Amino acid sequence: MVYAPLTRCRALGTVPCKAAQTYYRQRTVKSGLLLTEATCINPQAHGYPNTPGLYTEAQLAAWKPIVNAVHKAGGIFFAQLWHVGRASHSVYQPDNTPPVGPSAIAIPASQPCMLPDTSMTAYPVPRELTKEEIQGIVKDYADAAHNAVEAGFDGVEIHSANGYLIEQFLRQTSNHRSDEYGGSIPNRCRFCLEVAEAVTAKVGAAKVGIRLSPYNTFLQDGLDEDGVELMMYLVKELAKLKLLYLHCIEPRSSTGHVDVEPPPDQTLLPFRKAWPGAFLAAGGFTKPLGDEAIKDGAVDLVVFGRWWLANPDLPERFVEGAALNKYDRKTFYSPDPVKGYTDYPFLDQIKPGTPTRTHYSGTKIYA
Ligand SMILES: Cc1cc2nc3c(=O)[nH]c(=O)nc-3n(C[C@H](O)[C@H](O)[C@H](O)COP(=O)(O)O)c2cc1C
């Protein structure tokens, strides 16, 4: 079981909050892998309120005790490296300039942008990055990876999923470039591979994983016709770099946080087969689905997000077949350092006899 990367919008500006020490420690199991919330590689990488970074002294100083808390509890902790690209707004950008992307194409208005006061607005048209800027961002990924290791993290995960900058380069609908970063499959994969190479060169392949969402439509305008072919090319090229793991998002989770029944031809199996190393999958897993995926050899490790967020002792509950706390969406991204963050009860804090309801998977949930 792996703890999923989960943005919680609790940072103090761009500096991780102190309560994160408790939050991550509560979810640590001995020898278990935890991924941080997506963490920005430079000031331009932000697109949500109160998300942390890995590019200033103050951020590194705040991460160190969080990493120590996880290590003390016996956990393995990787930082997820993030640049949102066009999924931002001038309010989050240095000097209030427009956000950047592979091309000057906005995210469809049907998918709104959250402002710092949590009101919603349309995403603006981004400014197209120059080739020199792209090289600068590749370097920023490598520097952030270096900083992560400096702060004590055991490794990094490159966030190349969910419609953010790297995926914006991969997709035809968001990348209309006519230079070597756009057009053909190898060209659209170039930025991702350059980031993976630079990060690997900086901290070593044994400390690097990558997250891909082959069927993602979140912050995107549908799927590309050559999407599976592109992902297959990308996975094979990434395999040459001997990264520690590949982490894919299940098609049932393709629209973000909602589980939908995927078309039968959408499956992660081809990527699992093409990947020689450890294969992680996330998205809509319950205990029975996770057990099945492990038994079938469909995955090596199952990544849990929402259930683990709401159940700090999720592994223990699975072992005991115990009921689960319900997750509260209202506090996913609220700034409160306690409510919905560190106050989900452990099993021994729940009064016996509390009524439960049953999830479709058969899991009992505290109502
Ligand atoms: C509150 C919340 C925040 C999330 N933040 C991130 C993130 O920072 N990085 C990322 O790659 N995915 C993020 N995701 C997606 C999760 O990592 C995961 O893929 C998704 O929740 C599906 O898994 P689950 O069904 O076990 O929750 C987020 C999801 C939720 C619910």
TrEMBL record:
Cofactor(s) the record lists: FMN
Keywords: Flavoprotein, FMN
One Pfam family in the UniProt entry: Oxidored_FMN
NADH:flavin oxidoreductase/NADH oxidase N-terminal domain: residues covered: 1-324
InterPro entries: Aldolase_TIM (IPR013785), OxRdtase_FMN_N (IPR001155), Oye-like (IPR045247)
Domain of life (superkingdom): Eukaryota
Family: Belongs to the NADH:flavin oxidoreductase/NADH oxidase family.
Name of the protein in question: G13030 protein
Species of provenance: Coccomyxa viridis
